[in-house]
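lol ok so funny story. i was supposed to be doing the assay writeup but got distracted and ended up predicting the structure for this chain instead. priorities right. anyway since i did it might as well share w the group, maybe its usefull for someone
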Amino acid sequence: MDATAADRPRLLWVNVLMFALTLAAALVIVPWYGFTRGYSAAAWAWFAILLYANGLAITGGYHRLWSHRTYDAHWSIRLVYMFLGAMALQNSVLVWAAGHRDHHKHTDDNDRDPYSAGRGLWFSHIGWMLRRYPSGEPNFDNVRDLQKDPLVAFQHRYYYALAIGLNVLVPLALGWLHGDLWGVFLLAGVLRLVVSHHFTFLINSAAHAFGHQPYSDEHSARDNGWLAFLTYGEGYHNFHHQFAHDYRNGIRWWQWDPSKWLICSLSWVGLTRRLKRTPAVAIQRARLAMQFRRMEASLARKRASLPHVDLEHLRALLAREYEVFTATLAKWTRLTDAWYQRTRSELVQRWEEASFRSETRALLAELRLQHRRLKLLDAQLA
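and the output, tada:
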């Protein structure tokens, strides 16, 4: 045995067998049964319902509620998340959140990021769960807040019983209820589990490899609208890594983010509250900073290749735009500082808040106008 093989972490055979056997059943038994026996409408319906329920429990519960604390939820919602998350078979809230917080703290660090994209698509997608890598060991020091949650503690203590029971008994019970025992079990049990796994895993792999980076290129996370359709809104991953404490991933009304819509709609009936949103000015500031960085790099690359373009004139325009950008940010800083100092009483706070919002909208309009001007400059370079 060579040194590389000897040093490789040992296989986690429970995980290897679980992933391999469920995938084999989904690829062989599920289609065989469909061709020979056929599936009922109830089997397909429960496949879709449980697939989406598991996905939203992971994105809305495990991820945005517990890992990032982007909002607060009523105990009844947390209870539903807890059970449906266990059914998704992605470990307990405590283990999942511990790993995910490490991922954000050490993004792309091959030694400390549990599913670092720097180690390749296979590793970040599933390989990190097949061996006992040191980076994959859960660090419970960073989830002490979650250990105080009785529902989280209960799920962690009885996770295996909950996961096995929900993945076996629920599909069988639904199949018996509809008179299609094995059909419902294979679709709503086996196929649902495999699809749910790999849709979620795409966020660790594909969302760090394919797409664009409108807010930051200091990490590998990317925005990918196509992935958002498969991952319940999690495809806007560059935004998420830059603004991890925002309950939204897709911030535009047209961006597919059912997790955001669920959280927001539950707030209308009082089941979620304290929804955290990144100020629009901060988002626009990040977008403009990336535009400046890319245009400066583009000017440096094309200095010799575009003799017919007045690059020095473009460089001067870019420098002028950057001065406007910094001046606008200075206004924003002064505005927020003044608002915090003035709003000491509730009456003054209400009075000043209206003024603050009006001035913020004006600053945001300036930044958006500058964004359009930079796009025109970039078009000249292209």
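The first helix runs from residue 3 to 7. The chain has a mean pLDDT of 87.
back to the writeup now i swear
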